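Structure tokens please, single chain.
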Amino acid sequence: MVSMPHYEPYLLVMSGTSQNAPFLASWKDLKDHVRTIIKNPGWTGVHDVSDSDRSQGWCNIRREDQAKAAYGMCTIAHASYGP
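Here you go.
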């Protein structure tokens, strides 16, 4: 069953290769990654960028404090995974 997107006030957007950002392999991987910081992230999606080895992902977030925490998690992940 496919659910309809539910949009929240904040949107976390990420881009990278699966080598540098393995959590962008699928929407489930991204949602699980965001769940390490936020208990219930909103609608999450990932798609491959055409003519590239990059993926883009996004996750809707309800509260500002959660959005800031998720953004902080992603900037730390970026430093951990490499450029």
